[in-house]
Amino acid sequence: MSKIIIFYICIFFILANCSNKTSYSGKMLNQEELQNINFVNKDKLISKLGYPSYIDPIENKFFYFSEKSEKKSILNKQIKYSYVFVFKLDKNDQIIESRVFDIKESQNINYSNDKTSNEIVKRGLLEKIFGGVGTQQELPTTP
Fold it and tell me: Which of the four pLDDT bands, split at 50, 70 and 90, describes residue 89?
């Protein structure tokens, strides 16, 4: 009985490795849309690419994320492309700046060495265990 189960498991893994799977994250863009990203205003941008993945309300920027990856086997996943498109708009909804970031090719990532302080380490053992139980109150003192 166990040989049959092992046989079926092996067949499953062989068949699973034979299939290719293409997956998209963010906006699905074809080659034509990737080549022609020069838009004039917000209305043309939304009509062509749809609503953005993220809108920065402070700087009035629209962010579009697009990634295509292919999985050929269980252990082999290849990212074909990964882009972030950033469009900066003025007060009249005209695009004044557009930039494209190729995330797949970016190698210069700077990490911050700042650390968040951990107040739990500074507290005592009883306060760690019972610190959040009940309300804080002062005990009355009697003469």
Answer: very high
Residue pair 95/42 in contact (Cβ under 8 Å)? The answer is: yes
Backbone phi, then psi, for 14, in 5-degree steps?
Answer: -65, -45
Q: Please report, to the nearest 10 degrees, the dihedral formed by the alpha carbons of residues 23, 68, 105, 53 taken in order.
A: -100
Q: Which of 42, 40, 77, 34 shows the shortest CA–CA distance to 60?
A: 42
What are the backbone angles phi and psi of residue 124, rounded to the nearest 5°? -80, 170
Q: Contact, 52 vs 64, CB < 8 A?
A: yes
DSSP conformation letters of 20-39: -EEEEEE----HHHHH----
**How deeply is 45 buried, as exposed, middle or buried, from its count of CB atoms within 10 A (0-12, 13-18, 19+)?**
buried
Answer whether 82's CB lies under 8 Å from 101's CB: no
pTM of the model as a whole: 0.59
Residue among 67, 60, 54 at smallest CA distance from 22: 67
Nearest-5° Cα angle at 67, 90 to 104:
90
Which amino acid, one-letter code, is at 78?
Answer: Q
